[in-house]
Amino acid sequence: ARKRDGKNGAQVYDPAILDQTRERAEIESDIEVAIAASWFEAHFQPIVDIDTGIPSGFEALMRMRHPRKGLMSPAGIISVAEETGSISQIGNLILEDAMANLARVSRLPGMEEAYVAVNFSPLQFEPGLLARLTGLLGHYGMQPSRLVIEITEAVLMHDNPEIRTILNELHQFGCLIALDDFGTGYSSLSYMSRFPVDIVKIDQSFVRSLTDKADDIGSKNRMLIEGISAISHKMNCKVVAEGVETEEQRALLRQMGIDYAQGYLFSKPREISELLSALSARQSDARFMAG
Ligand code: C2E
Ligand code: MG
Ligand code: MG
Ligand code: MG
């Protein structure tokens, strides 16, 4: 029922078996127990300035700490939770964990302005969201711009007027909106004009194919990324490249005018205690580089 997601060190529910009702029921009941027993936690991956390697913020990534099965990655969990509706509860737990831990990270020198980027599912755009965020940010005495709301095409594609209204409110309030997995969907470019977007995250599939030697694929993808970067900057958006694993990719992306990078080259997602010690160890040299 499970397999190891090698690079992350965490396990995933095997997507191949999701259709099988018994396995699905197992995930559903795991989720139910996990909410009640507080097995959900956020792990944090730095998003660094591509020139200096210094973290500007951290993406909060959901993990389930199953006492018997170990640490579970979101694959499999999110899709089931979106179907059953429990994603809004999980989302709130991750949001609260992310804010509380951003407050801890902020106490480190140089991290006073760091942000946390949280992934949001469509169901989380409920009318009470702005009030909840206002309360949370107020509790920690943080400016709204310390919270980045990551959305994917799944949030935008139905062009639901309620979601659009809530996104505009959040943006007015001062939270930043990031378009996640950019470039993989059907009409990504048009979302940039119809929704308030501050940050564009170029999907890791583009980054991976940068160095593809076959049939000019690499050079074509370089042109695509350069184009996305130019358009994003014209739209006043910052650009993050996801899944940066090698120095070669970083150098190419830097030449192409990408602002920020995220990936295993800099750091894997870490649990908060590990993040805090890694950041403290780098206090004299704040760069977050491989190793
Ligand atoms: P995402 O938001 O695009 O997050 C980036 C994913 O890429 C993470 O996978 C991260 O661990 C992985 N990653 C980072 N650097 C590298 C790299 O250099 N190479 C490779 N191969 N992968 C890298 P993860 O943590 O398994 O999360 C998967 C997806 O699950 C996320 O993709 C996001 O869509 C969703 N997700 C995670 N946490 C939450 C959450 O709290 N709420 C919701 N709704 N979705 C979440
Ligand atoms: Mg994301
Ligand atoms: Mg992504
Ligand atoms: Mg730059």
UniProtKB/TrEMBL annotation:
It comes from the Bacteria. Residues 24-283 form the EAL domain. This is EAL domain-containing protein. It comes from Neorhizobium petrolearium. The lineage of its organism: Bacteria, Pseudomonadati, Pseudomonadota, Alphaproteobacteria, Hyphomicrobiales. The chain holds residues 502 to 792 of 792 of the full protein.
